[in-house]
């Protein structure tokens, strides 16, 4: 079960890059806006200053009166900017010399600029002063110009629109680059994930995939964990093997002593007690053995060690091991293998599954009957079929009996732990196969088939 995901590194990195790009785009837009406004105003001020200077140059005193020859070039220069309208006024100490009488000079000394409203329209204004040298002394003459800002506003808006377009384009370019950068940045993580994910359950080799320096501690931690896990699994396997030996050997010894005691006891009530003790020992021995078998199966199915298996040879070996137990009940144990069959799997697990099925068949068969192990395959699947002449499965069928510690309702008095079919079913499923179980179509007894993918 994997830990719940909390956020995405790629999304977080992209959001950070896009956030930075958005801030940068806004800052650049504000800078361009400020520069455009200042440049537009500075350009208009320079034109106004040049026009005012040209007009002051035409002011002269003739025959005791101020004469002004308004220069055409000055008005042409002012009106050439997007059809701007211009207002002017020339004042002397005696009052208005020429121009618009409602255009008052700006307060202050020297050349001064201001933005104001004239006749209800926003204007950029300038007032410049010049002193005429006369015999009576210097005569101050003031020129005031006012120019509408429509053209300048349109130019400013065009520059702002261009800046906004460039800012948007920059943001989109950065977004694309951020996506590429995020993908490249998490590339080592994806490669490490694939390197580990491709491994089988038994592959506990150290991770050697090249990673950036920032990920080296993570890889080191993974390798350390895998080393510890490998040691732990080895210890678990050794423990199961040792436990099987230490549990089965004392129980076998106790059973032998109980059988010797049974031969020596003469009273029937004592012999019945010893028989009950032998039965309990058998049940304990079988339960302990199958519990250890099931633990071993559970362990090895997670760490399969596949190899090519000759099912015919494995069947013969397993039958020979169980033949003494079958002969004790005068049961004929036979192998029928008309065709060879091979599979790829864990030999220990497959043999354990077959041994448990054969053990059940012998245990639930009537004395002086037969148990047959048939090996065949159809190209795709190889099958080990065990058929007995015993009590068979109960009316509910065999499906419920593949669960742990499940036993049939018709096996009262027979020693068992309810793990035989569980072990067999888990083994075949771990190998990509399936288990078939049911009663014989003709005659008494049961039929259990282990199906494995054939080579």
UniProtKB/TrEMBL annotation:
Transmembrane parts of this sequence: 159-182
Localisation per UniProt entry: Membrane
CDD domains documented for this protein: HATPase, HisKA
A GO MF label: phosphorelay sensor kinase activity
Signal sequence, start to end: none
Top-level class of the enzyme under EC nomenclature: transferase
Organism, scientific name: Marinibacterium profundimaris
Residue span(s) of domain HAMP: 183-234
InterPro entries, sorted: 2CSK_N, HAMP_dom, HATPase_C_sf, HATPase_dom, His_kinase_dom, HisK_dim/P_dom, HisK_dim/P_sf, Sig_transdc_His_kin-like_C
Sorted UniProt keywords: Kinase, Membrane, Phosphoprotein, Transferase, Transmembrane, Transmembrane helix, Two-component regulatory system
Tree of life domain: Bacteria
GO cellular component, one term: plasma membrane
The UniProt record lists the keyword Transmembrane: yes
Database matches in Pfam families: 2CSK_N (PF08521), HAMP (PF00672), HATPase_c (PF02518), HisKA (PF00512)
Record field: catalytic activity: ATP + protein L-histidine = ADP + protein N-phospho-L-histidine
Protein name: histidine kinase
SUPFAM superfamilies hit by this protein: ATPase domain of HSP90 chaperone/DNA topoisomerase II/histidine kinase, Homodimeric domain of signal transducing histidine kinase
